[in-house]
Specification:
This protein has 346 residues and is an alpha/beta fold. It has helices at 34-43, 57-64, 84-93, 113-123, 194-204, 225-236, and strands at 2-7, 27-28, 31-32, 48-53, 73-78, 100-104, 107-109, 127-134, 141-145, 151-156, 169-178, 209-213, 219-221, 252-253, 258-259, 264-265, 270-271, 276-278, 281-282, 287-288, 293-295, 298-299, 304-305, 310-312, 315-316, 321-322, 327-328, 333-334, 339-340. It folds into 2 domains: 2-224, Spore Coat Polysaccharide Biosynthesis Protein SpsA, Chain A (Alpha-Beta Complex); 252-340, Hexapeptide repeat proteins (UDP N-Acetylglucosamine Acyltransferase, domain 1, 3 Solenoid), CATH 2.160.10.10. It contains 6 helices and 29 strands. β9 and β10 form a beta hairpin. α3 (84-93) crosses α5 (194-204). The longest helix is centred in the middle third of the chain and has 12 residues, at 225-236. The N and C termini lie far apart (49 Å). Bound molecules: guanosine-5'-diphosphate-alpha-D-mannose and magnesium ion. Residues 104, 106, 221, 223 line the site of magnesium ion.
Length: 346
């Protein structure tokens, strides 16, 4: 089994975080996001992983390299222009001689991939799609299954009136196992979409299309600031399993500070006296001055928080400067090198 991670989208909904950092490598708990996907693939014995890139490919290659540090072998296929999800698969996988597990490069999950592969192989289906239950399917691909658990209908980003309002819906979790025959449904060198073209075509032709429904597994698309922040909150409160959190980093902490057990502080941070940090993640080398308060927030590396600032429910990208007595309220998202003058309120 080969693996392909679709990592070429522009990450527009995650701006400004993705202006300088492509979505596949935004830090999640201070690690480039794709490392989590690579890890679950590796646990299933899949070590040959191709990344399909389009937006800022050099940055991704620079961070992940050939994968040797992660114990896998990474290959890159870069599109000169975005080919769409299906087109990207055709371009990257056309010469693969084995079936492929394809992942959207922005879903955080603790799925045990070996279970999915086993189910796919036992079912004999030509394609198996992972489904997640959500309350509002309008942002996703809505999937209907039949009595045998096979896919019966697929509707990408359904309008509200196409959705039954009784209880959670099953949506496309952005993880597929595809036999080689699926490649034949996709034209070469054309922008083509799994969601709008390939899946409807599989159903039209009556090709066997199985589903694997997530039950206790964690799943979230990290592609908006709200879901990116929520993924952190879920992670530090223990909802994401199988990825141990390293809370042992060496940082400089004054004695009269309060840092709760959920928070994760990376190496080389400096936390001055009378600071309170709860439910938050700080990247490498963040400095927090006296009497500041940080809660429910994610702060990327090398930012500086001046004294008596209050940051709540916010995301700060790299190397931000927050002046003294600033108040940052829930929903704020600051791009790299943002500077807030003393006493700013946002
Ligand atoms: N290589 C490449 N080329 N990758 C692409 C391209 C492309 O042209 N377009 C998108 N991608 C990658 C993105 O980088 C992302 O990792 C993944 O494909 C999905 O794109 P998104 O833009 O994040 O799609 P979405 O979140 O709106 O919807 C998709 O994911 C949902 C689950 O999170 C769909 O697959 C939905 O059906 C699904 O429910
Ligand atoms: Mg997405």
């Amino acid at each position: 089994m080969k693996a392909l991670i679709l990592a070429g989208g522009k990450g527009t909904r995650l701006r400004p975080l993705t202006v300088y950092t492509p979505k596949p490598i935004v830090p999640v708990l201070n690690r480039p996001f794709l490392e989590y996907q690579i890890e679950i693939l590796k646990r299933a014995g899949i070590e040959d992983i191709t990344l399909s890139l389009s937006y800022q490919p050099d940055k991704i290659e620079h961070v992940l390299g050939f994968g040797e540090q992660l114990g896998v072998s990474l290959h890159y296929v870069t599109e000169s222009q975005p080919m769409g999800t299906g087109g990207a698969y055709k371009l990257a996988a056309k010469d693969f001689e084995e079936p492929t597990i394809v992942l959207n490069g922005d879903v955080l999950t603790d799925l045990i991939v070996a279970k999915l592969i086993k189910r796919h192989q036992r079912s004999g289906a030509k394609a198996t799609i992972v489904l997640a239950p959500v309350e509002d399917p309008s942002l996703y691909g809505l999937v209907e299954t039949d009595q045998d658990g096979n896919v019966r209908a697929f509707k990408e980003k359904p309008k509200a009136d196409a959705v039954e309002d009784s209880g959670p819906s099953l949506i496309n979790a952005g993880i597929y196992v595809l036999e080689r025959e699926i490649l034949d449904l996709i034209p070469e060198n054309e922008n083509y979409s799994f969601e709008y073209n390939v899946f409807p075509e599989i159903l039209n032709r009556g090709i066997s299309f199985g589903a694997f429904v997530l039950e206790n597994e964690y799943w979230r698309d990290i592609g908006t600031p709200e879901t990116y922040l929520q993924a952190h909150m879920d992670f530090i409160s223990g909802k994401v399993r199988h990825f141990p959190i390293d809370r042992e980093e060496e940082f400089d902490r004054a004695t009269s500070t309060f840092i709760d057990r959920n928070s994760v502080i990376d190496a080389e941070c400096v936390i001055k006296p009378n600071v309170t940090i709860t439910n938050s993640v700080l990247g490498k080398g963040v400095v927090v001055e006296e009497h500041s308060m940080i809660e429910n927030s994610v702060i990327w590396s090398h930012s500086r928080i001046s004294n008596s600032a209050k940051i709540s429910g916010a995301i700060l990208a790299r190397s931000c400067y927050v002046g003294k007595n600033c108040v940052i309220t829930p929903g704020a998202v600051l791009g790299n090198k943002s500077t807030l003058t003393d006493y700013t309120k946002i």
